[in-house]
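User: Structure tokens for both sequences below?

Assistant:
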Amino acid sequence: MTAFVCHSVVLCDDVRIEQNNKFILIGVYSNGVAVKEMPATIFLTVWATISFSEVGKHTFFFELHGNKGDIIKMTVELDVHEVNDPIPIVTPKRPITFEEPDEIRVLMGFDLEKLEEVAHFPIKLDPSIPDSNLPH
């Protein structure tokens, strides 16, 4: 069994990578997502940092789930050279439609381990949000 540590999980509108390999996180959601009305389509991505305790080649599984099933499923082959050295993982930006209040659950696992929930973000209805703050 490969032990891993999830150091951070950030839900945001977009992630950009600069030429010097720094990340720019755009539109960070601090306490879930609030929308003015539903259904709502929001473009989302997840930025996470992880590390684990064994060097070598590993298969990393990353999934986002909502109440109605899978939102994103990713499998990445990693070649780890240093233990406990955080590695950034970024999901593709994609539109997600919510018909009603929901929750995004972030699950991760390595090799053949069972996936572990590492974060969750509520999707809430808030009619008081001004029109200028609608997601795009």
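Moving on to the next sequence.
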Amino acid sequence: MQATRTLARSARKPQAKPRPPVLVLLRAALWGVLASLGLVVLYAVALRQNWLGTDTMGAATTAIKVLCAAFAGLLARRATGSRYWLWGMLGSVLYSLLAFLLFSLLSQTFILSLAILSDVAMAAAAGLFGVLVWQMFK
């Protein structure tokens, strides 16, 4: 009887340990930055091929930032089992800061201005909105 209990216990799959929320946030922000890099490269190709004019640059960069922030927020919502909106917002804010650092390094200019605060606020709103819409249709 004891042997069958031991076999039954060992047949169960071990439960996966939950990842620390900080690691989930960092991973979500990094995926958002990678998506942002990919979209920027696609946009640069479209500009180079003259498929889009330079007058679309402001709208395209804003759209890329919002889409990638929402993507990072959706990935970050898995940090815990509750308060998805908070984790989505934090993931998108972290994405915004990492994207600013990366693109500042790539352009070799590091200029702090109030525009960064508006980018962070826009990213927070995009992450929050993305997670709320996700929860609504889930």
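User: Anything stand out in the second?

Assistant: The two ends are 45 Å apart (CA to CA).
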